[in-house]
Amino acid sequence: MRAPLAWLLFALGAAIPSVAVLVVALRAASTESARAREEQLAERVATAQAIQRDVDAALARAKEALRRLEPAAVSRLEPRLMAEKPDFADVVVMGAEGQLLVPKPMSDEPPSPPGCLTDRAELLKGDRIAARDRIVGGCPHLKSEQGRYLWPLLALERVAEGSTPAEAIASWIDEHATRLAPAERSVLRARVTPLPEEVRGAILRALARPLALPRTLAALLTEPRGSDSVEAGLRIHRGRYLALVRPMPEGLEAGFVVHEASMIGAPGVPAHLVLAPGARRDATDVALTPELVVHVEPKDGAALDAQARRSGHRILAVGVAGLLTAVALAAVLFARARKAQRLAELRTDFVAAVSHELRTPLASVRMLSELLEAGDLPNDERPEVERTLAGEARRLSATVERMLRFGALARGRLSVQKSRMRAACILEDARDRFHKAHPDKEIIVDAPKSLEMDVDPALVGLALDNLLSNAAKYAAEGHPYRIEARRDGHHALLSVSDSGPGIAACAQRRIFSPFERADDRLSRATEGTGVGLSLVRGVARAHGGDAFVKSTVGVGSTFVVRVPMEGS
């Protein structure tokens, strides 16, 4: 089976289990990501349930503490309530008319400067623009009849006209943000849209601050929504807030209020989780009333999602790495098996080739010897038979010598007996030996007479014989062949060139391996054992050099033996 087809079949065979493993890895990664998210959700649910239990227990203790509370003056009630309040609740004491006594209401605004307008109604009298300018110029704390600040809205009109810098609006809102009611904040958020982006951002950040606690509680306690009930002497309000209050003498009420802001700041929440407003109606909710619900969520949800994805990615990476390792290992084993199979085939071909090369001269020797033994040859034919017999004997000897040298090379026992030789002599001897076997082939020898080398002449001659023999086999019409010797720095280069069909680049490396050939189809049409070039490289390396080829398809090839010069 040809190598490309074998590798194609291997790829197809490996693709099926690989796809199956990849699908399993993807599903495992998805399952791992889902498992990580489920673990995160389970942690949030467990946290919510623990907080709910703690809240319920704390509220039960708070109710019991209120029932035990003895009537006293406001100044004495506050510290007692502070000692008993739950961590997530605020203390309140209200007067007979429902006014907030604890926490103390915010101090009144500083008095307006002399000459400041004191009533919005004055804006409707006379020149409104003049009144607006007076308010913006010197009445920053003036409020409407509904208790809303006038200054920021009027100042925004002047900003639009270019009379007041936008930064002045930002400075005023930064100073008064905690005093602004929710309705005022909503109006200002809508009105500051045309302002420069930097100023608008500063204003929006200021408006995002929580209301001051007295204002927050005052706004909540006037909230009409919700329901009131009486339980064991306590008035309990359930709505947007939860109030536990106990009536006291002189119309006072004292107790605790739990609202969204106080719940969000409750302790006992792990550092990576937070309590967030707004009900989701799931297992992560902590509910005190149907309208007062907070839920447990990650402080950094994106980071937890990324962590869950990373868990899946790790599983996928391990699966893919295992798959690639398995495929790579299978490819290596398959390549080794193919190489072993190829080597077995080449060795079989080698044995067949050696047998053929030995059988042909042996058959000739036997036939000619029998003719001589029988004495049936005419005298005029006897010299020709003797020459043929000697030639076949030399051919047989050369084949046996080549096999012995290859065996020594394969065992690492190729010995080198160096002597000082002129390169020209070695090349001329190789030419003469080649001419005896191929008298019809022309060879050109090019070697300086002065070039001398320390080499084993027998081994170098054997290498040149193999190169010339290959030229005669594979480039039969590519003569005249050229054998050349020249010096290249500290090395001598011996080369054999032809103008034959050339060798493809992909085959130029492997042809120096035992039993390998450049073109299987061409090689099958020629005799040979496939060890000639391997022996050439072995001879070169035994001398401390190397062998290589330069070839262009359709132009020809040059095989080079490079050996070190003396003292290099």
UniProtKB/TrEMBL annotation:
Alphabetized GO MF terms: kinase activity
Keyword Kinase attached = yes
TM segments? 315-335
Short name of one Pfam family: HisKA
Q: Where is the Histidine kinase domain?
A: 353-567
The EC number(s) attached to this protein equal: 2.7.13.3
Keyword terms, alphabetized: Kinase, Membrane, Phosphoprotein, Transferase, Transmembrane, Transmembrane helix, Two-component regulatory system
Name the catalysed reactions: ATP + protein L-histidine = ADP + protein N-phospho-L-histidine
UniProt-recorded name of the protein: histidine kinase
Q: What organism does the UniProt record list as the source?
A: Pendulispora rubella
